[in-house]
Design a protein that fits this description.
Distance between the termini: 51 Å
Order of helices and strands: HEEEEHEEHH
Structural class: alpha+beta
Largest sheet: 4 strands, antiparallel
Amino acid sequence: MNEEIEFILDTTKEAMTNAIEHLEKELRSIRAGKATPAMLGTVMVDYYGSQTPLGQVANVNTPDPRTLSIQPWEKNMLQPIEKAIQIANLGLNPMNNGDIIMINVPPLTEERRKGLAKQAKSEAEHAKVGVRNARKDANNDIKKTDISDDMKKIAEDDVQKLTDTFVKKIDETFSVKEKEIMTV
């Protein structure tokens, strides 16, 4: 096969893989019934004037499935961490005991589970859009090449096969997350 076509296919596969990785990252931050440190992945703490991810200023652990414990590396960071969690609007209520911050994660209601499943579905749709955009870009690049029409058609078929494979992966990833969210 033509080197140019192989490059286009490799680039497309890389873009589609990035869409899947982004989806997995987003789904990790969606809560599914039990506490995980990833729930606090979006929390940014004011660390001496600069916004810093929580994981870079404290240890986040899960002592049990319903509790998160946050152990700051510096004691004077307790208040800023507590404030950052409240500002992040995650629906969590941090409790500061002077050494660590504890967060009790309440069980999800049926309504909240459905809302989280809808949010996960939305993230899956965004990933599919990313895959389809990669397909569109690849097909445009293929049309610009100076190879025979038959080779272009074969290359476009290969891009479509890639697209179908990645859309299937997205659907599988979403269904696993949806099951995890809806399980009581």
